[in-house]
Amino acid sequence: MLPTTSPHSNGALGSRDAARHTAGAKRYKYLRRLLHFRQMDFEFALWQMLYLFTSPQRVYRNFHYRKQTKDQWARDDPAFLVVLSIWLCVSTIGFGLVLDMGVLETLKLLLWVVFVDCIGVGLFISTLMWVISNKYLLKQPSKNFDVEWGYAFDVHLNAFYPLLVILHFLQLFFINHIVVINSDWFLGYFVGNTMWLIAIGYYLYITFLGYNALPFLKNTVVLLYPFALLGLIYVLSVSLGWNFTQALCWFYKYRVQ
Questions:
Q1: Domain-located, residue 70
Q2: Low pLDDT (below 50) residues in the chain
């Protein structure tokens, strides 16, 4: 890990370095780059998306490299967020087509999914995990070692991407043929609920990897405990014939009425 202080500062950051490393400065730099597409590394963002499915540990090793080279854990390139937004828009339009929604209804659904489901829920979960990790999981509470809010948001985006692909893309090929039309058939809710199990399981696992990658956190294994509840809900849903995908489709249609 690179030193965060200059050799003549007696343990304190110089005024110029301190200003450069404040949360506000990092946030300003990140948001400013949203307007400069040519400066974004989309190829690397696509690489990360691929490895979030095949080897998510490699993605978090890159966060270590960023800390060593740029002295921050969070992404400084918004390319991943931009590509994720494009994925979200395309998959939501696909949902609108599969559910026979009109243009206006699909647009309403898109706004809901982007600004509420992704951004709104993401801000809430990221802030909650940021508070929990800094309050309960730090090995030695210190101003020099804490979880950046931007990193917590990046962890959410990493975990959200596989969930999005499974529930908003792969599931589209089954909705009108197996999952919803045959919602009272065992195969229908088994296929749909199994996709939900895999998607949420991915979310929990990648979230755990994100916080487990930080060397100054302890007891991160507690982030895997929700797997027990997830497994219980899955068994109950299959046993009782609950169809989560059908409920999602009803919810989406209710939103745009």
A1: yes
A2: 1-20
pTM for the full model? 0.84
CA atoms within 13 A on the CB side of 141: 7
The number of domains in the chain is: 1
Identify which of 33, 146, 172 has the alpha carbon closest to the alpha carbon of residue 92.
172
CA distance 221 to 200: 17
Phi and psi, residue 168, nearest 5°: -105, -5
**Cα 147 from Cα 185, distance rounded (Å):** 46
Residue 96 CA, chain-centre distance (Å), reads 23
Q: Rounded to 10 degrees, what is the CA torsion of 152, 150, 81, 107?
A: 80
Question: What pLDDT, on the 0 to 100 scale, is given for residue 160?
Answer: 95
Residue 228 belongs to a domain: yes
Residue 21 in any domain: the answer is: no
3-class DSSP state for residue 217? strand
Beta bridge partners of 142: 145
Domain of 181 in residue numbering reads as 32-255
Is 155 in contact with 203 (CB distance < 8 Å)? no
Write the CB contacts of 144 (distance below 8 Å, at least 6 apart in sequence).
4
Q: Name residue, tokens 């800390």.
A: 67
DSSP state letters, 132-193: HIIIIIBSS-BTTB---HHHHHHHHHHHHHHHHHIIIIITHHHIIIIITTTTTSHHHHHHHH
What single DSSP character describes residue 1? -
Query: Please, are residues 50 and 203 in contact by the beta-carbon 8 Å criterion?
Result: no
**145 DSSP β-pair partners:** 142
pLDDT 10s digits, 152-196: 999 999 999 999 999 999 988 888 776 665 567 888 889 889 999
